[in-house]
Amino acid sequence: MAMIGNQRFTLLIVIAILSAGNQAPILRPSKAFRPGFQQEINMSKQHSLEGKVALVQGGSRGIGAAIVRRLAREGAQVAFTYVSSAGPAQELVEEITRAGGKALAMRADSADAAAVQLAVDDTVKAFGRLD
């Protein structure tokens, strides 16, 4: 849980481990064959993000965009920031809107505390809160 101003929000950190050089990527067994996978599916249906509001830092490309799409698909209203990818950010907003979701893209560098605060404020202004 983090505080910026008087707003509380949870930070999600995604760490991707990439293979180096010419090494083959690390392969993991499919989730479908992992014990307890069906229980995870059922639990995710019970814990829908319908009506929740999320803010993703760096959400216009790559892993960030995948997180934005997943949150929107699960029913969340999603605000996300970008630094220099205005085109892809706007395309992602349009994609989510066409699918019936709500999204907001904002230019903000996560290294700039004032820009992050403004992103939080704009998210709350657009969606009424931040979960």
Automatic annotation (TrEMBL):
Q: Where is the signal peptide?
A: none
GO molecular-function terms, A-Z: oxidoreductase activity, acting on CH-OH group of donors
Any one Pfam family here would be adh_short
Q: Fetch the Gene3D superfamilies from UniProt.
A: NAD(P)-binding Rossmann-like Domain (3.40.50.720)
Respond yes or no to whether keyword Protein biosynthesis is given for this record.
no
Concerning SUPFAM superfamilies, the annotation shows: NAD(P)-binding Rossmann-fold domains
Q: Which InterPro entries match?
A: NAD(P)-bd_dom_sf, SDR_fam
Q: Which UniProt keywords apply?
A: Oxidoreductase
Keyword field contains Oxidoreductase: yes
Q: Which family does it belong to?
A: Belongs to the short-chain dehydrogenases/reductases (SDR) family.
- Listed name of the protein: 3-ketoacyl-ACP reductase
